Amino acid sequence: MPGIVIVGVQWGDEGKGKATDLLGERTDWVVKFNGGNNAGHTVVIGDEKYALHLLPSGILSPGVNAVIGNGVVIDLEVLFAELGALQARGVDVSRLKVSANAHIITQYHRTLDKVTERFLGKRMIGTTGRGIGPTYADKINRTGIRVQDLFDENILRQKVEGALDQKNHLLVKVFNRRAITVDEVVDDLLSYAERVRPMVCDTGLLLSDALDAGDVVVFEGGQATMLDIDHGTYPFVTSSSATAGGASTGSGVGPNRLDRIVGIVKAYTTRVGSGPFPTELFDEDGDFLRSRGFEFGTTTGRPRRVGWYDAPITRYATRINGITDLVLTKLDILTGLKEIPVCVAYDVDGQRFDEVPVNQTDFHHATPILENFPGWSEDISTARTFEDLPQTAQDYVLALEKMSGTRISVIGVGPARDAVIVRHDLLD
């Protein structure tokens, strides 16, 4: 089964990097197929912690080929800053390949993202301000800048001029900002052209050839199901396809090449930014989960909103993505709780919903129907088999598995690279 997609089940930050790292030694290729530097993966290797924002986490595994696919939007300054930081720590980054069709985040995208978000006031979405949304908007409007445009200065200049003809009117007349000149944007982008040129290729063809050769290719999604532009809590979503379907469109690999869909889900729930969150906690339990789980954004440093595990969301994600296996992360964070509530359904104005309501207004007003499970006090960070877990921890996992609609194949019991329990091989 050479084609494996890894997607987040909730609102992101579930620990997708751990799953990718778990497959590392048997993986030949790791592909980032959506998003940009608006999300991050934290990977712990020994005593070393790595925070990645734009690069696929597989770049940390020796011998693995890393690919940034066409579905990604790239901030070139961030790309080379990340590469430089990894090189300084002795990581080999020479295997990175970048799609010629990936779109580039420019100075005006970042500026527009920040001023537009402030302009929205109380209706703000909670973006990271890194230019992701405006870049995807230009992509859809067919006014975007692609990586391949860096190698034709005339084309690049024409595209920047066309974009700024409109955007400077917005910046000056609506947002009271200075106009951005064509030269400053073009000169900035061209300064990266020769550095990125050796990495650029037809990554769709490259990956297709790799799959034909029997290589194991992991498609690593940024953000998560509930932030997907089509299937998430719109409009409080990201601007790309964060579900398994995005692996095909964002990489150029046909869906029939995707053999296993692995969903990553925390043993509780978190999200950042605005939008509905039925199980959100505002009490000492929320403080407990946030502090124990160190729930602060890898990219932004913002405190994450925290809540109990939401079974309807997991069922929804399992259906939307076609998930074959779940990786349950951060089970250890729940240690010490006497009781662990789980959302099994929602109440909306007296009506019970066992699944995620299709109407956004209903979901916004949903309150969780909770079922309590006994907790445990034993340290589980050294557990390496399911039987090593306390019985109440085993019962909790089995209950989540039954509610989720697919098997829980891997359980994370700590931040270390080897702090996992493997119940079913993800390549089996």
UniProtKB/TrEMBL annotation:
Give its localization.
Cytoplasm
User: Might you give the EC number(s) for this enzyme?
Assistant: 6.3.4.4
Q: Where does GTP bind?
A: 12-18, 40-42, 304, 330-332, 412-414
Q: Which annotated residues bind IMP?
A: 13-16, 38-41, 128, 142, 223, 238, 302
What keywords tag this UniProt record?
Cytoplasm, GTP-binding, Ligase, Magnesium, Metal-binding, Nucleotide-binding, Purine biosynthesis
Q: Where does Mg(2+) bind?
A: 13, 40
Q: Which SUPFAM superfamilies match?
A: P-loop containing nucleoside triphosphate hydrolases (SSF52540)
GO CC, sorted alphabetically, is: cytoplasm
Q: How is the cofactor bound?
A: Binds 1 Mg(2+) ion per subunit.
Listed under GO biological process in this entry are: 'de novo' AMP biosynthetic process; IMP metabolic process
Cofactor(s) needed, names only, are:
Mg(2+)
Look up the record and name the pathway of this protein: Purine metabolism; AMP biosynthesis via de novo pathway; AMP from IMP: step 1/2
- The active site annotation covers 13 (proton acceptor), 41 (proton donor), 139
Q: Name the chemical reaction catalysed here.
A: IMP + L-aspartate + GTP = N(6)-(1,2-dicarboxyethyl)-AMP + GDP + phosphate + 2 H(+)
An annotated Gene Ontology molecular function: GTP binding
Segments spanning the bilayer are none
The family database entries (InterPro entries) matched by this protein are listed as: Adenylosuccin_syn_GTP-bd, Adenylosuccin_syn_Lys_AS, Adenylosuccinate_synth_dom1, Adenylosuccinate_synth_dom2, Adenylosuccinate_synth_dom3, Adenylosuccinate_synthetase, P-loop_NTPase
Superkingdom is Bacteria
Residues given in the record as substrate binding sites: 298-304
What PANTHER family does the record tag this protein with? ADENYLOSUCCINATE SYNTHETASE
Quaternary assembly: Homodimer.
Q: Which family does it belong to?
A: Belongs to the adenylosuccinate synthetase family.
Classification via HAMAP family? Adenylosucc_synth
Q: What does this protein do?
A: Plays an important role in the de novo pathway of purine nucleotide biosynthesis. Catalyzes the first committed step in the biosynthesis of AMP from IMP.
Q: What is this protein called?
A: Adenylosuccinate synthetase
According to its UniProt entry, this protein's organism is Microbacterium oleivorans
Task: Recite the lineage of the species.
Answer: Bacteria, Bacillati, Actinomycetota, Actinomycetes, Micrococcales
